[in-house]
């Protein structure tokens, strides 16, 4: 199994990251994909990737919720740095649109501009895209389609009415502990082919029990998916892990 989306650079992990990674290894998790979502976190993210080379991999972009925090000059510098990272980046993301927390029309317009910029960067670098689309799933899908994006993972996917388009486009969705509380997500899981599902935790957020979440919670996600789809745990554990490994091009055996 692979945690296809977490945030190991967050301060929540600053004191005991080594113990967190150790628990993941002991729990049978074969790799972690950490998402750097702000330029200020790039150096730390790459140090983590280097420290746990071959086990922790990164995706890199700017979360749409940070659109007000990052001036254009800093965006341009960041994009140039991403061009030079090479295999250190296994994907571009999470990027996209967030209309739940960003409501002003001018900032939503800037989100759209940044989104297209990262789609173009992914195409230039030959990297897959990890998409955040809170409150804007239909528009995010439309932009991706207009830009011809092919290798796409819809992170923390919750819009059942958009599922058919995602599947028809050959894209993947990621599922986290939100399915423990959401009937809609469970229906999405039920209706999505197993070869289109990647498991994630979004740790340190989305804890199933309160407090800090950890990538080890991926087992809880797999257990619930097995119940929803009427499959064995081992099948979900293996197939969803292989989906993540193929999507990100991870050099891990499953």
Structure explained in plain terms:
The radius of gyration is 17 Å and the shape is globular. Helix 8 crosses helix 9. With 254 residues, it is an alpha/beta fold. It is 42% helix and 17% strand. It has a single domain (2-248), classed as Metal-dependent hydrolases (TIM Barrel, Alpha-Beta Barrel).
CATH homologous superfamily title: Metal-dependent hydrolases
Number of strands: 8
Strand line-up in the sheet with most strands: 1-2-3-4-5-6-7-8
So what's the overall shape? globular
- List the total number of helices: 9
Poorly predicted ranges (pLDDT <50, ≥5 residues)? none
The fold-level CATH name is TIM Barrel
What class would the helix/strand composition place it in? alpha/beta
Q: According to CATH, what is the class?
A: Alpha Beta
Give the second-level CATH assignment, the architecture: Alpha-Beta Barrel
Please give a handful of descriptors for the protein shown.
single chain; 254 residues; alpha/beta; TIM Barrel
What is this entry, summarized?
This protein has helices spanning 17-26, 42-51, 72-83, 105-125, 137-146, 163-168, 183-191, 218-229, 233-248, and strands at 2-6, 31-36, 56-60, 89-98, 129-134, 152-154, 172-175, 197-199. It is an alpha/beta fold and 254 residues long. It has a single domain (2-248), classed as TIM Barrel (Alpha-Beta Barrel).
Blueprint (SSEs and pairs):
Elements: E1 2-6, H1 17-26, E2 31-36, H2 42-51, E3 56-60, H3 72-83, E4 89-98, H4 105-125, E5 129-134, H5 137-146, E6 152-154, H6 163-168, E7 172-175, H7 183-191, E8 197-199, H8 218-229, H9 233-248
Parallel strand pairs: 1-2, 2-3, 3-4, 4-5, 5-6, 6-7, 7-8
């Amino acid at each position: 199994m692979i945690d296809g989306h977490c945030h190991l650079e967050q301060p929540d992990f600053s004191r005991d990251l080594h113990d967190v990674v150790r628990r993941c290894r002991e729990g049978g998790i074969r790799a972690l994909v950490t998402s750097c979502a702000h330029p200020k976190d790039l150096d730390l993210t790459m140090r983590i990737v280097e420290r746990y080379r071959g086990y922790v991999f990164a995706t890199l972009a700017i979360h749409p919720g940070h659109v007000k925090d990052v001036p254009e000059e800093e965006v341009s510098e960041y994009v140039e740095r991403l061009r030079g990272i090479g295999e250190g980046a296994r994907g571009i993301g999470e990027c996209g649109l967030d209309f739940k927390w960003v409501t002003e029309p001018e900032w939503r317009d800037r989100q759209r501009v940044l989104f297209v910029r990262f789609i173009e960067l992914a195409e230039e670098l030959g990297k897959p895209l990890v998409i955040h689309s809170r409150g804007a799933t239909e528009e995010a899908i439309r932009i991706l389609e207009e830009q011809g994006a092919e290798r796409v993972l819809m992170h923390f996917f919750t819009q059942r009415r958009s599922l058919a388009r995602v599947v028809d486009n050959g894209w993947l969705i990621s599922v986290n502990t939100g399915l423990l509380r959401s009937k809609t997500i469970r229906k999405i899981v039920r209706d999505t082919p197993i070869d289109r599902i990647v498991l994630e935790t979004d740790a340190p957020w989305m804890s199933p029990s309160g407090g800090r979440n950890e990538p080890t919670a991926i087992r809880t996600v797999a257990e619930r998916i097995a119940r929803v789809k009427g499959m064995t745990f081992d099948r979900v554990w293996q197939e969803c892990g292989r989906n993540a490994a193929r999507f990100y091009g991870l050099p891990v055996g499953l």
